[in-house]
Amino acid sequence: YQRYRPKDEL
Amino acid sequence: MNIFRLLGDICHLVAIIVLLLKIWKTRSCAGISGKSQILFALVYTTRYVDLFFTYVSLYNSVMKVIFLASSYATLYLIYVKFKATYDFNHDTFRIEFLLIPCVILSLLITHDYSPVELLWTFSIYLEAVAILPQLFMVSKTGEAETITSHYLFALGAYRALYIVNWIYRYYTESFIDGIAVVAGIIQTILYADFFYLYITKVLKGKDFKLPA
């Protein structure tokens, strides 16, 4: 699973 | 983008607009915690510094600008234009008790020690608890205007919808972000009492009053 900051979320 | 996130963003937008309109139309910010609004302005400022570095989509950028602008507009209305109506006697939550732990936590648990990443992490932790001064104010006065309770409901529903969005993304995109998920769940739990009273009272046309 990818774990990173969801840059597309607000 | 999925329907849950879109609905969440719409709820978020509605909450902010409801608050601005309430203050503007009644020419009063009575019952609104200026301290929570300071924290939200700080949340958007620290989270959306990436506006200058990361382009995702027009939707993403426009929403960020709206959230930033509206949070500062709200602060202006509370602390400048309608300052005389600001209920500072009841807005006594000590925000340093939220800010300091959030700073420490973001230094301890973060994805990456880059400035933008640390600011984002801080903003996620701070957002989870930013409503506490407002909830504290409501508990102190024992009531909230109906329009204020609509604002709180929309603001709480936004993160609850984001949780559904994260579950959806986990299964469809194999995507999971622990920091956002844990903070988002805590944030939603803080609204739980309020949700209960909102559904059992306000939606049935009664005033929002805490049980004595």
UniProtKB/TrEMBL annotation, chain B:
<keyword id="KW-0812">Transmembrane</keyword>
<dbReference type="Pfam" id="PF00810">
    <property type="entry name" value="ER_lumen_recept"/>
</dbReference>
<keyword id="KW-0813">Transport</keyword>
<dbReference type="GO" id="GO:0005789">
    <property type="term" value="C:endoplasmic reticulum membrane"/>
</dbReference>
<feature type="transmembrane region" description="Helical">
    <location>
        <begin position="62"/>
        <end position="80"/>
    </location>
</feature>
<feature type="transmembrane region" description="Helical">
    <location>
        <begin position="174"/>
        <end position="199"/>
    </location>
</feature>
<dbReference type="InterPro" id="IPR000133">
    <property type="entry name" value="ER_ret_rcpt"/>
</dbReference>
<dbReference type="GO" id="GO:0015031">
    <property type="term" value="P:protein transport"/>
</dbReference>
<keyword id="KW-0653">Protein transport</keyword>
<feature type="transmembrane region" description="Helical">
    <location>
        <begin position="6"/>
        <end position="24"/>
    </location>
</feature>
<keyword id="KW-0256">Endoplasmic reticulum</keyword>
<feature type="transmembrane region" description="Helical">
    <location>
        <begin position="150"/>
        <end position="168"/>
    </location>
</feature>
<feature type="transmembrane region" description="Helical">
    <location>
        <begin position="92"/>
        <end position="113"/>
    </location>
</feature>
<keyword id="KW-1133">Transmembrane helix</keyword>
<dbReference type="GO" id="GO:0046923">
    <property type="term" value="F:ER retention sequence binding"/>
</dbReference>
<dbReference type="GO" id="GO:0006621">
    <property type="term" value="P:protein retention in ER lumen"/>
</dbReference>
<dbReference type="GO" id="GO:0016192">
    <property type="term" value="P:vesicle-mediated transport"/>
</dbReference>
<protein>
    <recommendedName>
        <fullName>ER lumen protein-retaining receptor</fullName>
    </recommendedName>
</protein>
<keyword id="KW-0931">ER-Golgi transport</keyword>
<keyword id="KW-0472">Membrane</keyword>
<comment type="similarity">
    <text>Belongs to the ERD2 family.</text>
</comment>
<feature type="transmembrane region" description="Helical">
    <location>
        <begin position="119"/>
        <end position="138"/>
    </location>
</feature>
<keyword id="KW-0675">Receptor</keyword>
